[in-house]
Write a structure and sequence with these properties.
Blueprint lengths: L8 H4 L8 H13 L3 H14 L4 H14 L3 H8 L9 H13 L6 H12 L5 H19 L4 H6 L1 H4 L23
Helix pairs in contact: 2-3, 2-4, 3-4, 4-5, 5-6, 6-7, 7-8
């Protein structure tokens, strides 16, 4: 036995040429569903690095595999591979926010990152509002905990009103109200 690591048999026959990206992507998906997440992730990485047309689906696959093993930073990094010119970009931003919000986040920096992700994406108004409410609901116990760090960071999520009074419960933001109000 040599000192070289053994490769999974299903990955030996595929080359790194862009022409083999479609079958490689299918194989990665099959490995992901078949309980071989490490193999799937490797195949997704090869797809993303060899053929620009396959970056979005490979990025989504890598994000699923990484999120499944609780690797939030890795899943976010995978979703960041989706170019903003891709049809899947908006969906990647929603998935990015979902990954950041998974597991009951108690970190204002992570919640702020999720909020910025949604604010900078082109999601529709109702979706943006759902995420905003969800993020602020996650932040509320952290901000109201009374710790010095919470008071210092409270404006990260709620302080974007820049001098305007905070909205009352159930009140829609100005951008969502009809013009005649």
């Amino acid at each position: 036995m040599t000192g070289r690591p053994r490769r999974h048999p299903s990955t030996r026959s595929t080359s790194r040429s862009p022409a083999s990206s479609r079958p490689r992507l299918a194989l990665a998906f099959a490995c992901e569903r078949g309980g071989l997440p490490e193999v799937a992730e490797g195949l997704y990485q090869v797809c993303a690095s060899t053929d620009a047309a396959y970056v979005p689906p490979a990025a989504f696959g890598m994000a699923r595999v990484r999120a499944e093993r609780q690797d939030t930073a890795g899943a976010v990094a995978a979703l960041d591979l989706v170019p903003n010119t891709s049809r899947g970009y908006t969906e990647s931003r929603q998935q990015r926010a979902e990954v950041l919000l998974s597991g009951g986040v108690q970190d204002l920096a992570v919640l702020d990152q999720a909020m910025r992700t949604i604010e900078s994406s082109s999601v529709d108004g109702p979706t943006r509002q759902r995420y905003t409410v969800r993020i602020l609901n996650e932040a509320l116990p952290v901000v109201t905990s009374g710790t010095k760090a919470a008071r210092r960071c409270a404006d990260r999520l709620g302080g974007r009103h820049r001098g305007r009074r905070p909205r009352r419960a159930g009140e829609r933001p100005a951008c969502a109200r009809p013009r005649h109000e």
